[in-house]
Amino acid sequence: MSSSKSHDEIWSEWRDLVNMAPSDLEDWLETEESRSVGDTDDGESTGHKSGRSIVKICRTNKDDLGDDQWDHMATVVGYIKRHCSQGGPDRDVETSKWRYSLMNWGHDPLAQDGCANS
């Protein structure tokens, strides 16, 4: 999959939407809550696997990112935008599958700050 967006557009949206620090995302991916959401084919959900890739991307310098990583970043941005536009539950957002799924993709809807990678 190749995005029609430029790397600068993807980078800007990524920085706005991926708001979990790599270490926080790694810690999250170790929890039962993280593993409790998403579609699984081989024992690991798509979102959980994506989260592991997001950690690597956040720890890679922008100039060193490969085409596959740029493509994944575009996928992550699209997923977060779609999932957020669906809206969360009316209550109990903190412990909702909606939030857990977004967090697997590096976005905590209850957080205020942007991606910790600079």
What structural category do the secondary elements indicate? mainly alpha
Sketch the major β-sheet. Answer: none
User: Given the structure, what is the number of helices?
Assistant: 6
Strand content: under 5%
Over all CA atoms, what is the radius of gyration? 14 Å
Distance N to C terminus: 25 Å
Unreliable stretches covering 5 or more consecutive residues? 114-118
N-to-C SSE series? HHHHHH
How many DSSP-defined strands?
0
Mean pLDDT rating: 88
Our count of domains comes out at 1
Per the principal axes of the C-alpha atoms, what is the gross shape? Answer: globular
> What proportion of the residues is helical, as a percent range?
40-55%
What key attributes describe this structure?
118 residues; mainly alpha; 6 helices
Q: Can you describe what's shown?
A:
This protein has one domain (7-104). The chain is built from 6 helices and no strands. Helices cover 54% and strands 0% of the residues. The protein has helices at 7-17, 22-29, 32-35, 46-58, 67-86, 97-104. By secondary structure, it is mainly α. Helix 1 (7-17) crosses helix 5 and helix 2 packs antiparallel against helix 4 (46-58). It starts with 6 loop residues before the first helix and ends in a 14-residue tail after the last helix.
In short:
The longest helix has 20 residues, at 67-86.
Summarize the SSE layout with pairings:
Layout: H1 7-17, H2 22-29, H3 32-35, H4 46-58, H5 67-86, H6 97-104
